[in-house]
Design goal:
2 strands; single chain; Recoverin, domain 1; two-stranded antiparallel ribbon; EF-hand-dom_pair; 171 residues; 2 domains
């Protein structure tokens, strides 16, 4: 069951993600802030779904989440993901095809988001491309934050982010 816990490194990374989402730095993520980030990454989600997700994640039901609620929300998502990965294969063919369709949609969204970052189309996101993408979506990141993001995503430590590393980071 220890896989369901978030380790210190993941908490640090999630705090960085929360800071990027919290555009006005008021300590809360609003539906508008989450939607802004997703749209700038080329991921289109209905406003109603964003509202529902944040309302569910909020202890008060206000639709605003603070850093603690964000961390708890991600931990619950990871636990559910782990649970679904370890569940038996007793699904019927219609749920399997629905899962496949959802996976295909997710893959398309990830590829679209990757292309936003990979400005020259060479299959890698460089430090400069990451900085440009953050600027493009209105996120003024410090050199430290930029280095943290690159370190977080660059699993093979070659100084750039390939598609697999990008997808692993977001999933």
């Amino acid at each position: 069951m220890s896989e369901n816990f978030i380790n210190f490194s993941e908490i640090r990374d999630l705090r960085t993600a929360f800071d990027l989402l919290d555009r006005d730095q008021d300590g809360h993520v609003t539906p508008e802030e989450l939607q802004f980030m997703l749209r700038n990454l080329g991921i289109h989600v209905r406003d109603e779904l964003i509202d529902d997700l944040l309302r569910e994640a909020s202890r008060t039901g206000s639709g605003l989440i603070d850093e603690t609620e964000f961390l708890q929300w991600v931990a619950r998502i990871q636990a559910l993901k782990e649970e679904s990965n370890t569940s038996s294969g007793s699904s019927n063919s219609s749920s399997t095809s629905a899962t496949q369709a959802a996976d295909d949609d997710l893959t398309q969204d990830l590829v679209a988001a990757f292309r936003v970052f990979d400005r020259d189309g060479n299959g890698y996101i460089t430090r400069d491309e990451l900085k440009s993408a953050m600027d493009m979506i209105g996120e003024n990141v410090t050199e430290y934050q930029l280095n943290e993001m690159l370190e977080l995503a660059d699993a093979d430590k070659d100084g750039r982010i390939n598609y697999e590393e990008f997808a692993r980071l977001l999933l």
